[in-house]
Amino acid sequence: MSGLLIRPRIRPRVAVVLVYTAAMCMNGLDSTIVNPALYTIAGDFGRPLSAANTVETAFLVALAVGLPVAGWLGDRFGTKWVFLGALTAFTIASAVCGLAPDLTTLVVARAVQGLAGGLLTPVGMTLLFRAFPPHERMKLAKVLIVPTALMPALGPPLGGLLTEHLSWHWLFFVNVPIGTAAVLLGVFGLREHVEGPEGKFDTVGFWLATPALGLLTYALGFGPSQGWTRPAVAVSAALGSVLLVAAVLHQVRAKTPLLKLKLLADQVYGSASALAGVTAAGLMGVLFVFPLLYQASLGASALDAGLSVFPEAVGLMLASQVVDRLLPKLGPRLLTVPALLVAAAVFATLAIPGVAENAWSVRGLMFLIGLVLGTAVLTVQISGFESIGPADMGQAMGLFQIVRTLGGALGIAACAAVIGGGHVTEAAADPGPYRTAVWVTAALVAAGALIALRLPREAPQPPPFDDEDAPPPGEGLAADEAPAVKG
């Protein structure tokens, strides 16, 4: 009887799924929800739009800064409490953003949000992947796709709706009840895992890798709109590149590096990480440039252009169903290579003259992009970690997120360079450069198909799953848990 009284009402693995999904939805939504409100924020504070843009600058740079240390923190202090600490900071910072009396307070609080968000994604995925052994992770496709696909796509229309009918303050207030509930659930429902890092903290690696990622993110994010020759952008790009090279050289030689770059030598994980960077470059590039092409071809409004890419999120949601069913039958290589080739063909179709002028063709092609490219991305994300043991999971997740983040930034920067550098915010009369940029994204995705040839035909034999990581008796994937696990 006493055993029944102390048994938690929510099983730990169900709690992991619920807390992870809530936190990642908040993080994914906040990456795009503020963009439509920047003009209103600038007006409310009596500042120029260029000053309001620092709200997003602070978030993106701080997010990149948090990534290198995420794996070490999770191993050192425990994934549960690092994740919940980051989620608490993100929630409190959201409240401060909503209550901000001036632009300076908003920018600082936004930076705290970004720093916490940089920890949330890799540590959260580490929690999730440690809770489920490799043979069960295909069921996570439905969980992973919600924050990575639906929330960023919902950001712009939801941001515009809240700003127009309530106020921009509600862009941040919506996080507070969700974050509070997720933290409370995590405190009582999550299981702790402290891996314990080997050796001392890599101080040199930290001071090389952290500013390198922050500076490069700043340069890649604002070089296209502000001009690559602007002193702040040029210095950030040059110094960030030098620090990144130095960081890589140090990490390879260090006994206990901050980032275990040697993990990339594993064929499966290394190929998956490279694919994550290339596919992120292609997807973020096309989502950046196609709305501009849509406006150039049709003279559509910015809102119409933003809504034109929304079917991509619907396709991604369906892709989670495809991966769940086909990956066990076809294996990573046979599922990923054709998906990437079809995705490249769809990208190229968007660049054909006359296609962008047809709204329904655009919606259909965007849906296909989400379906086929989402299938490849989810396959890579799930199968890429099957050769990684629990002890290295935190490090592997952090490194994977860094590669994907930089890949996305590089894809946007490449497209911006093709369409004209500092004038990317205005649709030109000639859609030619925009079509060329879309061809560039198609080439990136096609190159990913070559990398995908290195993936195994069948899932590799996973490393032993430690007994301490296995769910206790009675916490398997019982039938009554299936709806919660599948999201």
Beta strands, count: 0
Principal-axes geometry comes out as globular
- Could you give a short account of the major beta sheet? none
End-to-end separation in angstroms reads 32 Å
Sheet-strand content, in percent, reads under 5%
Runs in which pLDDT lies below 50 for 5 or more consecutive residues are 1-8, 421-428, 460-487
The topology string of helices and strands comes to HHHHHHHHHHHHHHHHHHHH
Give the rounded overall mean pLDDT: 74
The assigned structural class equals mainly alpha
Question: What proportion of the residues is helical, as a percent range?
Answer: over 70%
Number of helices: 20
- Cα-atom radius of gyration: 22 Å
Task: Note down, in words, how this protein is organized.
With 487 residues, the protein is an all-alpha fold. 73% of the residues lie in helices and 0% in strands. The protein contains 20 helices and no strands. Helix 16 (332-350) runs antiparallel to helix 17 (359-383). The longest helix has 32 residues, at 267-298. It is globular, with a radius of gyration of 22 Å. The relative contact order is 0.14. The model is unreliable at 1-8, 421-428 and 460-487 (pLDDT under 50).
Concise overview:
The chain is mainly alpha-helical and 487 residues long. It has helices at residues 2-6, 12-30, 38-45, 49-52, 54-77, 79-99, 103-131, 141-165, 170-173, 175-189, 203-226, 231-253, 267-298, 302-308, 311-330, 332-350, 359-383, 393-419, 432-452, 482-485.
Task: Sum up the structure in keywords.
disordered C terminus, single chain, 0% strand, 487 residues
